[in-house]
Specification:
Blueprint (H helix, E strand, L loop, with lengths): L2 H16 L2 H19 L5 H23 L4 H4 L1 H28 L1
Helix pairs in contact: 1-2
Length: 105
């Protein structure tokens, strides 16, 4: 019942920012992407956090690279530990999948 009202408000708001139909198309694309993610059980909160905090992290990373050389991320123990945790967090689903595959075999 509220879906048509929400769609109209979202489309009018996205058009009203820059008076561009391209913005309405982007709104529609991200709406469909959100629906697909929700349908297949993906959590939306991490995606929203990534969209909000990603720009700040990227600008901080760029600023750090401008101030020094890239080796600063590998020479400091704290930054090396954070990089190691990041790599492990990305690799953990693959490690669990591989362990489950071996357990089944």
């Amino acid at each position: 019942m509220f879906y048509p009202v929400i769609l109209v408000i979202a489309f009018v708001g996205s058009f009203g920012v820059a008076n561009s139909m391209f913005d309405v198309l982007i709104c529609l694309i991200f709406g469909v992407l959100g629906w697909i993610l929700r349908r297949y059980g993906f959590p939306t909160a991490p995606l929203v956090l990534a969209l909000i905090l990603g720009y700040m992290a990227e600008s901080g990373f760029r600023r750090a690279l401008i101030m020094g050389d890239p080796s600063i991320f590998f020479t400091r123990p704290v930054s090396a530990a954070i990089l190691l945790l990041a790599v492990l967090s990305f690799a953990m689903p693959f490690i669990r999948w591989r362990a489950a595959k071996r357990k089944r075999s």
